[in-house]
Known about the structure:
Structural class: mainly alpha
Amino acid sequence: MFRGSIKVFALSLGLVSSSTIAWGQNGHRVIGELAQGYLTPATSSHIQLILGDDTLAEVSTWPDEMRSDSAHFWKKQSGKWHYINIDKPEHMHRHSNPAISNKEEVKHILDGINFTTNVLKNSSSDIKDKQFALKFLVHLVGDAHQPFHAGRAEDLGGNKIDVEFFGKSTNLHKVFDTELVEYQKLSFTEFTRFITTSDKQLIANYLNSTPSDWLLESNKIAEDIYESNETEISWGYIYKHTPTIKIRLQQGGYRLAGLLNQIFDKNSKPLVNALANK
């Protein structure tokens, strides 16, 4: 095993590395692109009012790009929005604050998803707040499906675990957010086409979940990878773990569409018509 049991504590902001970015650009864009195709007309209209001509794929990387901004929020506060550390999976509900309405109270990714969702549901929110919330929400749903954004605090979600990827030095976090995605040699639109499914029951199963569930799934996957203790990554590792990457991107895309439809379309019901008909 890489390390001992999971510990829950907030990482000091000074320890949050820029390498905690999830999925890299392509992975986030895949999730945004997949979701875009399953928005209902009502949802699409609302989103266009907020984003203009920008697509979900285009804004999906915005919170990572803003880390170079000199504002205090982006330098000192935004990092903790991207991840969560869990002591025991059965205690996950203790981390949830569905009613959170103050940006300053966001402690982790689950708070971030709840906060941005609440801003978008609030008819009193101004356009700038909605733009911030929508761009961040698209990104956070993606982050929630990257296993090591619900990993262990002591190794910064795999960032401190050194591995070799076909002889190149990297870390475990980066392998899952970038290397395994980029190894497919696909554009984000190609990748999206490859993982799109017509299996309505599978999609319904994906939608029958909450953000807490998504993070618990990620934590379980991360723990399994920790336990395998593989540090020399080559063909066998690619074969073993690429299906997981594809499933997580697929789940992220459909769940993002379902969540946005529930926010913006009053006729959208979970598992019934939360997605646009295809």
